[in-house]
Specification:
Length: about 150
């Protein structure tokens, strides 16, 4: 790489100069960010499972603000590591959306619901019931947001 300037732009320029029309882009150039190690993914997955247990305990005790706090902390750890289609990630998004909606924080609930639906859309056929339910919940939050 040549010195100076924006690193990503320099990499993009190098890729563009290497691509010959009609040739596929080398796969190694498609990912500008490094993948997390297996160990990091395992740690975040275990953290997510523990967070789900904490969330369930807080929900049964009616401590919804604690649920939101744990969801936010978990999502912060998950987002740079887990795919947006990872089931633990989708579950945390669903719980965050549900509880925030219950607490009448509709804007934030709708944002989490949107991310959840986007993840499910990558996993399921458009006519899948799970995707339909996720979309319905997301739409409910969007409607509630508009009404307030």
């Amino acid at each position: 790489m040549e010195g100076g300037g924006n690193g990503i732009m320099t990499i993009a320029a190098e890729v563009a100069s290497e691509v010959v029309e009609g040739d596929p882009v080398p796969i190694m150039h498609l990912s500008l960010c490094s993948q997390p190690s297996e160990e990091v993914v395992k740690e975040v997955t275990e953290y997510s499972l523990a967070a789900l247990e904490k969330i369930e305990k807080a929900r049964t005790e009616g401590n919804y603000h604690e649920v939101v706090k744990v969801c936010r902390e978990c999502l912060e750890k998950q987002e740079p590591v887990l795919a947006d289609t990872h089931l633990y990630h989708l579950r945390i998004l669903s719980l965050a959306s549900e509880v925030l909606s219950y607490l009448q924080f509709f804007d934030e609930a709708a944002g989490f619901a949107r991310k959840m639906v986007e993840g499910y859309m990558k996993l399921y056929h458009p006519n899948n019931a799970q995707l339909g339910m996720a979309t319905m919940r997301g739409g409910r939050n969007a409607l509630a947001r508009g009404a307030h």
